[in-house]
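Reviewers of the previous submission asked for a worked example of the structure-prediction workflow described in the proposal, so we include one complete record here. The input consisted solely of the amino acid sequence. No template or homolog information was supplied to the procedure at any stage.
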Amino acid sequence: MNPGVMHGAHSLVKDESVLKHQLAPGLVARTIRFGRPYAGILAFFLFLVVLDAATGVINPLIYRQLINRGILAGNEALIVQLALLAAGVSILDSGLTFWQRQLAAKVGLEILLDLRTRVFVHIQQMSLAFFTRAKTGALVSRLNTDLSGVRDAFTDILSTAVGNLVTVTLVLGAMFVLSWKLTLCTLVLVPMFLLPARYVGRRLRVLTRETYDRVAEMNNLMVERFNVAGAMVSKIFGRPDDERAAFVRQASRVRDIGLKASTYGRLLFIGLGLVASLAVALVYGWGGVQASRHVLDVGTVVALISYLLRLYGPLTALSNLQIDVMTTLVSFERVFEVLDLKPMVTEKPDAKPIPPGAVRVEFADVGFRYPTAEEVSLASLESVAVLAKHPERQVLYNLSLVAEPGQMIALVGPSGAGKTTLAQLVARLYDVRSGAIRFNGVDLRDATLDSVRTTVGMVMQETHLFHDTLRANLLYARPTATEAELATALHDAQLAAAIAALPQGLDTVVGDRGHRLSGGEKQRVAIARLLLKAPAVVILDEATAHLDSESERAIQEAFQSALKGRTSFVIAHRLSTVQQADQILVLDKGRIVERGRHAELEQAGGLYAQLHRTQFATQPKPARGA
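From that input alone, the workflow returned the following structure tokens.
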């Protein structure tokens, strides 16, 4: 089949439902503004498109002269000249096409890089609440699928609109000049070309959408089974036959839909080829009769057929231009939707850095509630129709405390009391709703984000390691660290011996989320990473939860040295780990209900004493005679 016809046929399977979408006000103007930096190169690209379209119309006229004045007249010299001219035009046309497509690829990829970087950086700036709600797959889709739709927005649409419009105009103009009667006759066949194609195209669109859904389900099944945690569950519960059956069901649906789509696709292309062949036969038949009667010459008939084969593809593409434009605008809208979602933690224009050195941390009447879904997320990223608007419950109420430089502040209390939330506010993962948190008198909301990140370090209960080497995971905290500094951090985190036992040492790849390491080893890597960063304010959220008693004692000794002179907040359910704290804060339902040192709180007989008695009462008693 003619390539132009096939290109036009491909556009028939695009989703028409996009035409029903209500675009956001000002989207078109915003999209155009986005293309302004590329105005010069896009203008040159359009020039190449027009020149390429015009060049493609020349050869049929050359062939007409070659037949009429060369072959039929027996003029061999003219035949050679016109054949060389046609070859030259073809070479020029091929060069222009190559140049045009290279330019389109360059512009499209530059736009993709620009927009993809903007989206990635913007998502990185979102608050922690955003990531607790958004589906990771939906975010990745915005960076891949939606941005791929944006990539060719300017180049493809411009080339389709301008190039095909120029082609159709010039081809029809040339055909009418050569024979307006034959031209009108061939145009009568256009509905025969478009109507059946549109019917089959609608069926293909339905099947294409269903294919996407089924493939997504199959991919989701594979992602869940192929990650370390999923593979572990599958192996522990041992249901390989059921797993195979579930996968076969999903894959079979994809196969069945693919077979049906392939059948419809082949019918579409065969049908379009048949209509195009009928049009060619019509021109040959009627044009041949006209040529035999000397109403038309043979060269004109051949030129008309050549033009006819160039006509149907651009006509079909132009008939679907609105779908192309709307599809691209919807892709831009989905990308702008993410870019317009404002981060909750931002840096003020006049922000100032936190001075280096020891830090005094002050909570002044701090109140906090977590943001609503509408404040931090998008329904399309959560796969829900409408986001909840009701405010979240208050988590912290009127908290006031002071942590002097070098002090260890222990945070204890029942689950849900607000301990982790308080720690996250110190790290400015969220901003307070009322009151203020100050570092050496500087309100965290007035400080530069970079200085906050430099000042605060954190070891969380669940350690996350990147799928990279141990060295890369450690250097993430401090890229300029020397080998000696790495060795010191590993030694202080009681990790040196474990690293030495690995075949590649620090260059060992830890695997997905660090699953090649034990829980205790991962925790020690996190501690080593913190020690390497050496922040002025340290937050330990159950930092020794995965360690055995011997390792915990060693790490606690390491912490006593590493935390010296640093302000630290320690969250621990095992109260034995916080007995040496300078100040213990007991939280309950978002309020500080007790504060003091271990002995004082024990004697007070309040919540801390109750937690302490309960915890030690549940520990196994030593056997008699031990």
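The CA atoms of residues 339 and 401 lie 37 Å apart. We consider this example representative of the routine output the project will generate in years two and three.
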